[in-house]
């Protein structure tokens, strides 16, 4: 995906690309460091939660972006319609994660043995 995007950007916008100055390059590298580091820590943290909890945690980034965007990126705050949309997307993701989590709780494990079959009574 990134390779294709790079080729398209070079082909269509070659005359508009430029090398940033030292200050802009520094901030780009700091931003890249925190972006990659944050994604690594988030992915590493999924070891310690269930799939259901991980799905909900992943969905919170929608609300975080809506809430922190005006403060961290100097973006315009969301309107009421924007907040309703963000909450609807978050709610739908949580609902789907919970429903899928419940439906998988009683299903067979990957080798086909029902989960309750291995338990001693």
Short note summarizing the structure:
By secondary structure, the chain is an all-alpha fold. The protein has four helices and no strands.
Summarize the SSE layout with pairings:
Elements: H1 2-13, H2 22-45, H3 51-72, H4 80-105
Helix pairs in contact: 3-4
Structural class: mainly alpha
Secondary structure tally: strands: 0
Which ranges are low-confidence, i.e. pLDDT below 50, for 5 or more consecutive residues?
A: none
Mean pLDDT, rounded to whole units? Answer: 83
Q: How would you characterize the largest beta sheet?
A: none
Could you say which overall geometry the principal axes of the C-alpha atoms support?
extended
- The percentage helix is 55-70%
Q: Terminal Cα separation, in Å?
A: 51 Å
Note the beta-strand portion. under 5%
Gyration radius (Cα, Å) is: 21 Å
Count, helices? 4
H/E element sequence: HHHH
Question: What key phrases describe this protein's structure?
Answer:
121 residues; mainly alpha; 4 helices; 0% strand
Walkthrough of the structure:
The protein is mainly α and 121 residues long. The chain has a domain at 50-105. The chain is built from four helices and no strands. It has helices at residues 2-13, 22-45, 51-72, 80-105. Helix 3 packs antiparallel against helix 4 (80-105). The longest helix has 26 residues, at 80-105. The mean pLDDT is 83.
